[in-house]
Amino acid sequence: MSKFGLYNIVLKDITDSSVRVFEFDLNDEYFAKIDSPEVKKGQIKAEVFVQKRITTYELNIKLDGFIIIPCNRCLDEMEQPIRYDDKIEVKFGKNFSEENEIVIVPEADGSINIAWFLYEFIVLNIPIKHVHLPGECNKGMVDKLKRHITRQKDDEEDNDLFDIETDDDDSIDTDEPIDPRWGSLQNINFDNN
Fold first, then answer.
1. How many CA atoms lie within 13 A of 65 on its CB side?
2. I need a surface site. Which of 21, 111, 146, 165 has the fewest CB within 10 A?
3. For the whole model, what pTM was predicted?
4. CA distances from 75 to 11, 38, 147 (A)
5. Contact assessment for residue 94 and residue 79, using Cβ atoms and an 8 Å cutoff
C-alpha cells in the first residue's frame, strides 16, 4: 500500500445513490507524508460524503480542526483554526485531469485519492495574515519589532501589538517651528469640491 493508500475512495463500488461517509484524521503524520513547506503539523477531522449522481460522483468535504503555522509577527508557532465545507465533482474518463471544476479519474482505476485535495483545501483556507491574538506574541520579538519598525502616525493596524496611541487630530503641531522649505505645503487645499 502506498503512503497515501488510506485516502483512496473506491468510486466503482458505489452503485446506488445513497450517501457514503469517509472519515480521516489529518494529524502530524499526515502532514509529514505530504512533505510540503506550508504546513507541517495540525489536527483536522475530515469527513467526505460521497453520493453517486447520474454521470458523476459528488464529494462533499468538511474539514474542522487546526494547523500549526508560524505567526506573521513574531514567527512563533500558533494554532490556526481551519473550517471548510465545499464539494468537488468526479467522473470517470481515460486519464486523470481536472476540467471546469470536475475531476476526471481513470475508469480503469475506479477510485480517487483525496490526500492532496484535502491538503490543498487546508492551505487555501489559511488567511493571508495569520497572527497571534493581542498579547500572545513572543515578547522579545515584539520588543525588537518596536525598535526597528517604521510607523505612520495614522497607521492603526497592529496598535494592540505595539500599544500605540493614535491621535484622531491630524492637525500640524504649531509649537515646533516648521522648516520653511515645507511651510508652503500647509496652504494646499485637499478638498476637491
1. 21
2. 165
3. 0.72
4. 42, 13, 17
5. no
Q: What is the DSSP string of the chain?
A: --TTGGGEEESTT--SSS-EEEEEEE-HHHHHHHT-SS--EEEEEEEEEEEE-SS-EEEEEEEEEEEEEE-TTT--EEEEEEEEEEEEEEEEESS-EEETTEEEEETTT-EEE-HHHHHHHHHHTS-SS--PPTT-S-HHHHHHHHHH----TT--TTHHHHT----S--PPPTTSPPPHHHHGGGG------
Per-residue pLDDT of 39-89, as tens digits, reads 999 999 999 999 999 889 999 999 999 999 999 888 899 999 999 999 999
Which residue is associated with the grid cell 483525496? 114
pLDDT(37) > 80? yes
What are residue 84's phi and psi, to 5 degrees? -145, 140
Dihedral, 99, 103, 106, 111 alpha carbons, nearest 10 = 180
**For 111-162, how does the pLDDT look when each residue is reduced to its tens digit (9 = 90+)?**
999 999 999 999 999 999 999 988 888 888 888 888 877 655 555 555 555 5
Rounded to a whole number of angstroms, the distance between the first and last alpha carbons of the chain is: 72
